[in-house]
């Protein structure tokens, strides 16, 4: 396993104890924002490009044991790998699933550990991976903030080599009886004012992004933050996924031409635990034809595309609009959707299908056909968006991400909901530093960045499963019912 980089301490002037609210904001470069970020918590995330997944380094137990967890808006359980888990101890398992465990938790070493032995933990994600064990309670420290007595899964059997930090709705926990999630406890323990957080994954080329609990960082997005409602389960009215209406998708070329490929709303789930984006198959096909991409998902699990798109100055963008004409518009540049990762897979034994016109310069494409009527906007979309998830008012606010910025201006999200604020006017240029940590003004409690696992660490061996991107969404029949119930079955173009 790769060694973790040394901890990087960042200014920690904000106090969680004060009751003062943020009252004003300064967006100017030199103007220091008010040091009142009291109830927001910044957690650095790490992006290891083709490694997929964004990891947060957190600690669990007393004394703290450091674990690295995949940050997942698409599920709601926090779980860690027991140091005795089968994947962590069995070389046969490690061979089958392509590597050992990233960072494990050792219950006897924690004096605050409480077993919940009669609460079985069993989770299965959409890609078939999963974990089994029991629940337990212990303290967890995230972004320098201690959350007491969180219920977490302890995996004894796992096919995933790292735990997960599920930050979705509590209705979506894997347990039979819903329990308070980490977001619920942050709010209940007064660490944030409202169950809401912002996720800034940053550009593909950047090593890390941030998650900010209870706050919004106006330096991290462009223009206005615009909210759209989260779609509840159509039958029960319960909110369990960050499903929103994607009202249009346009391929926008610099020569002024454009091609609108989605014109009727499609429910999509915003899922940071999913590497790629999954759209209705008919639409994905249409895009492949327009761009000359080759869909080989049925065999090697990839969609191939000419790497020329990475270098081309064509400036093609995929313009995603939500909630209708006045809703948020996120423009994803083509170089965020074309991934130069195929050669890594080839070295690992991937057979590229013969006869492709761009065989010498082959990249993979970050939009795949969705399955079972579940459409996910994963990291290939989310990197271009600044997304605020408000689990209390059931809203998601989005804006174009200001990628590569090192600046920070954090505002607390109050009980009133996501503040009606503007971000910066134009995209940051060449500001990316070695760490990507916030610059002056980012006076937030923060923890370190983690290194992420090798691309082959957590996935099954063999091209088929290896290249199948992880979809961590909990496999729930209800999800399909929910979406179709809400949006109307006719909108599903399977
Ligand atoms: C968890 O248990 C179920 C039921 O016994 C089993 O089907 C599944 O494969 C197990 N998952 C893991 C990751 O071992
Ligand atoms: C296409 O891009 C241009 C700017 O390059 C923008 O003004 C226009 O609104 C975009 N069109 C769509 C449909 O998103
Ligand atoms: C490159 O950009 C030009 C227009 O600027 C476009 O005609 C061409 O199709 C693009 N090719 C690729 C591979 O993106
Ligand atoms: C972000 O930084 C990377 C690496 O320096 C650069 O390649 C990319 O173009 C930048 N993105 C933007 C939108 O400036
Ligand atoms: C990402 O993964 C690659 C290949 O495994 C590794 O060489 C690199 O150091 C990693 N980068 C970070 C920031 O962890």
Would you give an account of this structure?
The protein has 494 residues and is mainly β. The chain folds into 2 domains: 24-194, Cathepsin D, subunit A, domain 1, CATH 2.40.70; 198-489, Acid Proteases (Cathepsin D, subunit A, domain 1, Beta Barrel). It is built from 10 helices and 28 strands. It has helices at 86-89, 91-97, 182-188, 281-291, 308-311, 334-337, 342-347, 379-382, 463-467, 477-487; strands spanning 41-47, 54-60, 65-72, 78-82, 104-105, 114-124, 130-142, 145-158, 163-166, 196-200, 208-213, 215-217, 221-229, 243-252, 258-262, 266-270, 277-279, 294-296, 302-306, 317-322, 329-333, 338-339, 362-365, 367-369, 376-377, 385-390, 395-401, 410-412. The strands form 5 sheets. A 6-stranded mixed beta barrel has the order 2-3-9-4-8-7. A hairpin with a 5-residue loop joins β18 (294-296) and β19. It is globular. The two termini are 41 Å apart. Mean pLDDT is 76; it is low at 1-42, 44-51 and 431-494. Bound molecules: 2-acetamido-2-deoxy-beta-D-glucopyranose (5 copies). One 2-acetamido-2-deoxy-beta-D-glucopyranose is lined by residues 122, 130-132, 157-159.
């Amino acid at each position: 396993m790769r060694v973790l980089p040394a901890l990087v301490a960042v200014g920690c002037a904000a106090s969680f104890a004060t009751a003062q609210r943020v009252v004003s904001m300064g967006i100017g470069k030199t103007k220091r924002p008010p040091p009142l970020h009291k109830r927001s918590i910044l957690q650095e995330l790490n992006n290891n490009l083709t490694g997929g997944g964004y990891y947060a380094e957190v600690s669990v137990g007393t004394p703290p044991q450091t674990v690295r967890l995949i940050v997942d808006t698409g599920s709601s359980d926090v779980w860690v790998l027991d140091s005795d888990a089968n994947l962590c101890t069995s070389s046969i398992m490690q061979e089958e699933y392509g590597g050992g465990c990233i960072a494990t938790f050792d219950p006897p070493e924690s004096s605050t550990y409480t077993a919940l032995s009669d609460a079985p933990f069993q989770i299965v994600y959409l890609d078939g991976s999963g974990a089994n064990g029991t629940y337990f309670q212990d303290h967890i420290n995230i972004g320098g903030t201690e959350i007491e007595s969180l219920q977490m899964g302890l995996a004894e059997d796992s096919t995933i080599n790292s735990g997960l930090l599920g930050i979705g709705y509590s209705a979506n926990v894997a347990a039979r009886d819903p329990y308070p999630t980490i977001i619920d406890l942050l709010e209940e323990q007064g660490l944030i004012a409202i169950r809401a957080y912002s996720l800034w994954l940053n550009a593909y080329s950047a090593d890390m992004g941030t998650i900010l609990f209870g706050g919004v960082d106006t330096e991290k997005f462009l223009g206005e933050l615009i909210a759209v409602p989260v779609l509840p389960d159509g039958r029960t009215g319960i909110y369990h996924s960050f499903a929103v209406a994607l009202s249009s998708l346009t391929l926008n070329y610099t020569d002024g031409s454009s091609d609108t490929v989605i014109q009727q709303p499609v429910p999509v789930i915003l899922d940071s635990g999913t590497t790629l984006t999954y759209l209705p198959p008919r639409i994905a096909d249409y895009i492949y034809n327009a761009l000359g991409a080759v869909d080989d998902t049925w065999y090697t699990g990839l969609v191939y595309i000419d790497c020329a798109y990475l270098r081309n100055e064509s400036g093609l963008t995929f313009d995603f609009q939500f909630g209708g004409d006045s809703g948020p518009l996120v423009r994803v540049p083509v170089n965020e959707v074309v991934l130069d990762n195929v050669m890594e897979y080839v070295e690992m034994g991937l057979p590229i299908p013969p006869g492709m016109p761009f065989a010498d310069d082959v990249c993979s494409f970050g939009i795949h056909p969705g399955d079972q009527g579940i459409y996910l906007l994963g990291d290939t979309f989310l990197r271009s968006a600044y997304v605020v998830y408000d689990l209390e008012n059931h809203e998601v606010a989005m804006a174009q991400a200001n990628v590569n910025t090192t600046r920070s201006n954090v505002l607390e999200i109050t009980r009133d909901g996501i503040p009606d604020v503007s971000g910066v006017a134009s995209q940051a240029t060449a500001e990316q530093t070695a760490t990507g940590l916030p610059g002056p003004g980012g006076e937030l409690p923060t923890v370190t960045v983690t290194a992420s696992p090798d691309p082959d660490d957590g996935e099954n061996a063999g091209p088929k499963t290896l290249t199948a991107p992880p979809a961590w969404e909990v496999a729930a029949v209800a999800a399909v019912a929910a979406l179709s119930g809400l949006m109307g079955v006719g909108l599903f173009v399977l």
